[in-house]
Design a protein that fits this description.
The protein is mostly helical. The chain is built from 5 helices and 3 strands. A 3-stranded antiparallel sheet has the order 1-3-2. Helix 2 runs antiparallel to helix 4.
Amino acid sequence: PAELADELEDPRAELVRRLLEYEQIKLAALELDRIPQAERDFAWLAVLVEQSAEKRLPELTVVDIRQAWLAILARAKNNRRHEIQQDELSVREQMSAILRVLAFKPFVPFDELFDPTLGVRHVVVNFIAMLELAKEGLVLISQDEAYAPIYVRQAMVPRRDSAAGEA
């Protein structure tokens, strides 16, 4: 009788174990079914992105130039002279001086074109000369990205051939 009871319990225990295993597999299958599948829930997409050969620089705003200008003015005010003398400052002379610097260096940081040790008046005249050069299209003022240094370079001016001038 005891042996019979063991034999009867074994098939039930095995059946319970199989049912529990089936339930675990079914729950796992439901969990896996919730995960998105390619081609069922979404599709892969390939997009061709054309790379332009010309790198576009961000636009330089008046605010950027103003901030650079205020920083230069602040440095110039720290280097004030206490001697009183009359300075004859010419915007045209400063324009020529800036163009001479740009003739030797292709890109010059904006603030390197100003010498704060010469005083505020000199810096102001130099700034006006810089704006005048930009207005006339003789220099280009650019910035790679927001809050990056501002650079000044000489604009490309087409050369006149001496043969074309004689014809």
